[in-house]
Write a structure and sequence with these properties.
It is a single chain. The chain is mainly alpha-helical and about 260 residues long. It has one domain (about 1-260). The chain is built from 12 helices and no strands.
Length: about 260
């Protein structure tokens, strides 16, 4: 099975290289398909995400495309959200059925939200540009800091319970709350926040005993070359083709989990 997981890592790494998103959602789904327990799939995927995204953050930091003040605001909400979620999981770890139901329901919601962000990315950008509502302008002004912390808390909960949401959802929130932030700085800032968040959530799962290090190693062996090759191919493949396909797949699977659960 190690070779199967390595191949899965290569596949997901390639898709991440092509689209820039989808790593957490696709990896968790594949692990569930292979029969991995939901809590172990989420915990292992969180540490997987922390390792694979660290290199990208270093590149963005050197290129000065990370807004560390915004990262701090997000972390001010997401890290407490992670702590609350780990505490909840610790109380439920003895009841496998309830724990599985909570994780799969959260995963369904996170997948649907991620899919909608991917499918409606251009509309979100347009809404940001033309919105004139006073409450929305306040979110981008005097309420901006509080809104960022609150959004970080929500992301922290979703990511800890499902391993999904650190990428696409974080980017969507930055897109709406920080209209003057360029696309490359949104990506860099989102990645910089995702690394400590997934690391903290992964360590929380480690304390709960829901991380499989042999599985983690197999995934990393495949994913690193997959990300490299996917990035090379992605230069030639238009984003307008890949994102709708990925978004549609995640949406259908998310609805299927929600209805099936």
């Amino acid at each position: 099975m190690d070779l199967v997981f390595t191949a899965a890592g290569f596949l997901v790494g390639g898709i991440v290289g092509l689209t820039g998103v989808g790593g957490g959602s696709l990896m968790t789904l594949l692990l569930l398909m292979f029969g991995i327990a939901p809590a172990v799939a989420v915990g292992t995927d969180l540490l997987y995400a922390a390792v694979t995204k660290t290199g990208a953050v270093w590149v963005h930091h050197r290129n000065r495309t990370v807004q560390w003040r915004i990262v701090g605001r997000l972390a001010l909400g997401s890290l407490p959200g992670t702590a609350v979620s780990v505490w909840l999981l610790r109380d439920l770890i003895a009841d496998a059925e309830v724990l599985e139901r909570i994780i799969l329901t959260t995963l369904s919601v996170s997948l649907i939200l991620t899919a909608l962000v991917l499918l409606l990315k251009d509309r979100l950008r347009g809404f940001r540009a033309r919105s004139g509502a006073s409450w929305f302008r306040r979110l981008q002004g005097e309420w901006q800091g509080y809104a960022t912390v609150a959004a970080g808390f929500l992301i922290g909960v979703l990511v800890t319970l499902s391993s999904v949401g650190a990428g696409a959802l974080g980017a969507a929130i930055l897109l709406l709350l920080y209209p003057r932030l360029s696309a490359i700085r949104i990506v860099g800032t989102d990645l910089a926040h995702a690394v400590p968040l997934t690391a903290a959530a992964g360590l929380g799962h480690l304390q709960l005993g829901t991380v499989d290090f042999q599985l983690l190693g197999s995934l990393l062996v495949g994913s690193l070359p997959g990300i490299y090759l996917g990035s090379r191919v992605g230069v030639r493949l238009p984003e307008r083709v890949m994102r709708p396909v990925l978004g549609s797949v995640l949406f259908v699977i998310g609805v299927g989990f929600l209805v099936g659960g």
